[in-house]
What we know:
Distance between the termini: 11 Å
Radius of gyration: 20 Å
Low-confidence stretches: 1-20, 353-372
Shape: globular
Mean pLDDT: 89
Strand order of the largest sheet: 1-28-27-26
Number of helices: 2
Helix content: under 10%
Order of helices and strands: HEEEEEEEEEEEEEEEEEEEEEEEEEEEEH
Structural class: mainly beta
Amino acid sequence: MRTSTLSVLFATVALAGGASAGEPYRWSVMNLNGDSALGSIAWDVDDSTAVGQAAWDGQYTAAKWVAGSGQPQALASPPGFARALGVHSGSIVGFTGFAISRAVVWTGGTLTDLNPADGLDSTANAVWHSNQVGSVFRAGSNHAALWAGSAGSFVDLHPLGAADSGISDIDGSGQAGTVYWTQPGAMHAALWHGTADSVVDLHPAGAYASQAQAISNGRQGGYAQFVRDGPSHAALWSATAESFFDLTPSGGPTVAGAIYGMDGDVQVGQAGFLDGSGGATVWFGTPESAFFLGSLLSADYTETWAYAVDIDKFGTIRVVGYAYNNNYYLPDGTYYPRNEAMMWVLVPEPSSLFALAAGLAGLAGVRPRRRR
């Protein structure tokens, strides 16, 4: 979800340097579940650090993977259920508790409770440097939330007149999430810029429901649903409802989809394809670029999900999520189907560096944008 101009250049040149993004021999897959975990899910990735949850004794707890390790490490948390949902620049966010959850942030191994004094329930979904976002249940509904590292720093971003709201992602260009203007009613994709009155309704004309679940460099990703109970369309916006771009147009190659994470011009999420396949999917900004990441796994995996993507300074693309292993047996022979955290990796080919050098030469004199 986080990138720089140089990272985007690497990624773009790598895709233009011969093979298409969807050719499977250019991808590698790392199973992150490890030898001891009974199950796991990866929710976010920043550089080579992934975060999520893993179960060692039948109870899921917050976990992280460092420097590409296939072995999850438990994050310190109170006894009981815990989940790590976001990571950026060394900070990790999520929640602890099951029936009643409390938003938390891990910084340098220290756990801080973000739940405000009047919050009955809360969760932190994403982090950007010193800021965290999510939702807090207060005054009878969910309220979009922004923090700066402590419970006392809580800022209520709930728009005036809204029935319910929440934020899914954050970067330097804003906060992306969802607003219910009426209850009951359909959700609307929304964008904030740090205050409740800054909210922008991204709901496209003619849609029944929409949701923004990712943000990167001024663009938002999620989905729009045009018919109640109908298929979702993977969606991109550029900060206005009118900018809606449909990544699931009529005629394929996908028939349904949703974006859960994005970084630069790379989006990941779920899609169903014309050939009947579907699951974890990556796009490179166009409908035609959709590639089914689940096709890189064996037939043992019957369900796949992709939740986040990161492009590092070398142009390496990392996608995390999970796959359902429907053919796993414990060492004692017990049939034990389970979720296993996965990382899909696309590394630029060496030949791409020559194209990059030429591209950078053409950019001489152009002022680079600052890293987000």
